[in-house]
Input
Amino acid sequence: MGWIGDGVESIRSLEIRHALTQIVTLGTIGTMALIIWKVLICVTGSESPVVVVLSESMEPGFKRGDILFLHMSKDPIRSGEIVVFHVDGREIPIVHRVIKVHERQDTGEVNILTKGDNNLIDDRPLYAQGQLWLQQHHIMGRAVGFLPYVGWVTIIMTEKPILKYLLIGALGLLFITSKE
Output
């Protein structure tokens, strides 16, 4: 009888050790993802080095679901560049082309006007109320590359949250039941 009790305790000990190993592994993966994101922020100079195009406003150049890679440099922004900017009062950044840059000689302030390639008018109706121009602090980065369609995963997960929870649940179940 003593051997059976020792065997059960040994199995429980192994199960606990296995569960702790999985928790530590998951924590390590999460930490590494965060470190990679922070390194990308430092390397690109952009607060958000990767964004997903969420609308058709930049077609035909960029389509909904494309992933854009951003970089922020000290070079002056020029007309024709594609930038990602945030507007006060809006949570989601916007990807559009710079159509006009105006530098005020008296203050040195740079005013920027944007427009989606597929839009009929400039972005002034999208800016905060009473705002006619973007300033440098609104710009999150300049598009330097893209991956077509890869961002659809993000769009689907956002628009259909049940799929996100099912995927997370399935991955969690797979992680818990894996032997290695």
